[in-house]
């Protein structure tokens, strides 16, 4: 049995078990889910430990260099004169995906623990949770575009129900907005995907293939096909490959989210229950970044490079716009949601620089933000679970009331704002270094972008510290008075056990970024070389 | 008369040899008579028996359909002096029609209102079997005469079905509306046919005489005549602009009848269009350089219009049946997209898509029917919170609607991918802007589609309301029925290979 396949489908098996169990056993569902996610975490750690590094295992555009691969024929359809359609169940990982996989598995465990707060319709909740888990893992592992798309879309429906059924007051609006936004991006992605597979032929079998790695090699494109590199075909008067890149980029940019396509995010975050917020921020946003690296850069490298300035610009706008918005929020969860927009902007900036530093920084930022945003949303969930309020101005002096809680908040805040010693610092420093270097190495990004990025860090310090000051310092003064005071107990054991590993990981990644960088380095170098080559042609 | 004598032997021989290729239809004819006789012999209590006979008979017919695959191979065989033609696509369509007819025969009796019909359902079964015979003819007709006869055959059966149960003024109005518009549409079509006959002196679409006649005639006149014929066919396909009767009739008719009307005649009409258009668009044929009537352009424009109108109108609906009526119109538009490729691959995509649409639509209406039976509600806004009262039915509803939207993992999605790739393949060769426009419209309207399909799960699960804990739940049959279909839709979504080789 292939490990990745196990990793992907373990949750859904447990999901089936939950569906089949009678509702009288509903108290056990959370333990089953937790067990499933822990099992998955074990698999992913095993994969991480056995992941080979070295230039011979870089992956990216070399199929042979991917690891833990499994390839099975899935759908094949005779297309008559056009050839044959070949869809495979094809999974495998390289340096870009392996660390994200571990991060996602850990976030899922935390989300499962955070699900303790859910009290209604447990069967539905945990079944959907595990379905979502499967889809997320599948996206990071899939190397066949059709398979990727299937998993990608499969995430939408569980999320719609998770937000819509267990969410807050405006949950219906938030759920449908999220669904429509994402689907809008992905139906066009479907068109590009179909176009790509009709343009590409498997060099061995000679049939049309959805294999992403074949799509990365210009030699596999059929002469005269729409997306052929040499053909310079146009769609409605625009270069076809540019159109393809832009459509895919928009689909992923909605997920990241990149300003101005971010408006679903604050709504979805605010309305979603804590575990779903954690998954959204921790994992789903990374799928956007991952998609841009794997698919947009992989399949359309020359367009990505020529449009790098615009990618960088969007990244910078996201950093600044997200930060300014975060400053203006009263709702703690909304503030953190906007901080996510800001932090994910660094990912885009790093990718746009197309330097080894920048892309390493981008991947590291995704991993680090995965852990930190999980921590932040879990912390918000703690306070919201106790008093059902999270308006920043309704709390004051929490530091004396909940000292241990405050310690974790401070760790999370300081780590997020880029304090040296924590993961976000290394990640942001790398992306900015990449952005600075880009001007002299490949001339893609001007210096001012890196400078604006630095301003973003400053702003993030402002909103985090200001929030800390408003909510946690000073004398105790709560909107709910004595009732709140008794309700706001300090962290219990379950919460501590969840938060402590996250805090330690944030610290560990800050002190030893090699834990991530060591695994991704070869793939990043291969990616940079690959894109440079594409431009040379 | 004397001049014809030498031909008679040949013609009779042809008819006799054709019968061998006509077995499913012969079986259907016999089945029709048996059901009718059963009804007469056993009187009012015969409904159950008729249903068993009819369903078993249809299974036999399906078996006969499959036997024909080996008979024809890759060739198209003209039968009855070129009145009908038997080929792979026709067999695939017949197969789809029979499968869906079988599902419908099971389903009719589960509607509470039809069940309470004082005349019983025996007649209904014989009408359905009769109409299936007509549908079979539609899938094979290539002579304008047989085209017209087949359409009328189905129309008359549909009129009867549509007003089978009339309980109030509204349903009567719907039935009457259907008959009147149907009669008008067929008159228009007949006019078109007579014009074509006048231009060419032939009724056989595949004949050289017709090609010669049409190519000599003024382009405008030919286009006019063909448009009239398309209006007649379009009435069955329910594309825009001849769709206006659809919502009222679908809403007024009994729900299982709506399921019938929204699937079977539409699917057979697609087969008819395929046959009708084939000679005009063939790569090599009589019409190779004929520029008289651009079928691709016309059908693409209609397809785009139908998708847009159908989807946007569906957004505004509150009644489930009306919503599904408009969504059915939208699906016609999408299926037209597969049709305009005019390639074998496009036809495979079309048949697959139509079968999946048919299954999903029948299941969706069956579930609407379930809620109608149990709670006497037909508006989506009344579904509030019922997802917790009827969990299985509601989950099935979600699966079915997801398939209709075309989101993975569901058969609707694979169907959509097949259609998109068929169209894209042709676009890549021809760079026809209309095909690109179709692709983009298809993608955009999918998002619109999601918006109204999601209204059902939205009300079922997301909105909360107090409901009285269950008294008695009726119609478990319907839930089982739709669960099976929902399961099939997921299975075919994951493994379309199981099915696609038959189409």
From TrEMBL, chain A:
Keyword Transmembrane helix on entry: yes
Keywords for the protein's UniProt record, in alphabetical order: Membrane, Transmembrane, Transmembrane helix
One of the GO BP terms on file: electron transport coupled proton transport
Topology of the protein relative to the lipid bilayer: Multi-pass membrane protein
Transmembrane listed as a keyword: yes
Pfam families reported for this sequence: Proton_antipo_M
Origin superkingdom: Bacteria
Protein name: NADH-quinone oxidoreductase subunit M
Protein source organism: Mucilaginibacter phyllosphaerae
TrEMBL record, chain B:
Localisation: Cell membrane; Endomembrane system; Membrane
GO biological process: ATP synthesis coupled electron transport
Location, primary (coarse class): membrane
One GO location term (cellular component): plasma membrane
Transmembrane residue ranges: 15-37, 49-71, 91-110, 122-142, 148-166, 178-200, 220-246, 267-286, 298-316, 323-344, 350-371, 392-413, 433-454, 474-495
Membrane topology term: Multi-pass membrane protein
GO molecular function: NADH dehydrogenase (quinone) (non-electrogenic) activity; NADH dehydrogenase (ubiquinone) activity; quinone binding
The reaction(s) this protein catalyses: a quinone + NADH + 5 H(+)(in) = a quinol + NAD(+) + 4 H(+)(out)
Keywords of this entry: Cell membrane, Membrane, NAD, Quinone, Translocase, Transmembrane, Transmembrane helix, Transport
Protein's UniProt keywords contain Repeat: no
Superkingdom of this protein's organism: Bacteria
Presence of the UniProt keyword NAD in the record: yes
Enzyme class, broadest EC rank: translocase
Residue intervals of the NADH:quinone oxidoreductase/Mrp antiporter transmembrane domain: 141-434
EC number(s) reported in the record: 7.1.1.-
Role summary: NDH-1 shuttles electrons from NADH, via FMN and iron-sulfur (Fe-S) centers, to quinones in the respiratory chain. The immediate electron acceptor for the enzyme in this species is believed to be a menaquinone. Couples the redox reaction to proton translocation (for every two electrons transferred, four hydrogen ions are translocated across the cytoplasmic membrane), and thus conserves the redox energy in a proton gradient.
Record's subunit section: NDH-1 is composed of 14 different subunits. Subunits NuoA, H, J, K, L, M, N constitute the membrane sector of the complex.
Stated family: Belongs to the complex I subunit 2 family.
PANTHER family given in the database record: NADH DEHYDROGENASE (PTHR22773)
Record protein name field: NADH-quinone oxidoreductase subunit N
Species the sequence originates in: Mucilaginibacter phyllosphaerae
Gene for this chain: nuoN
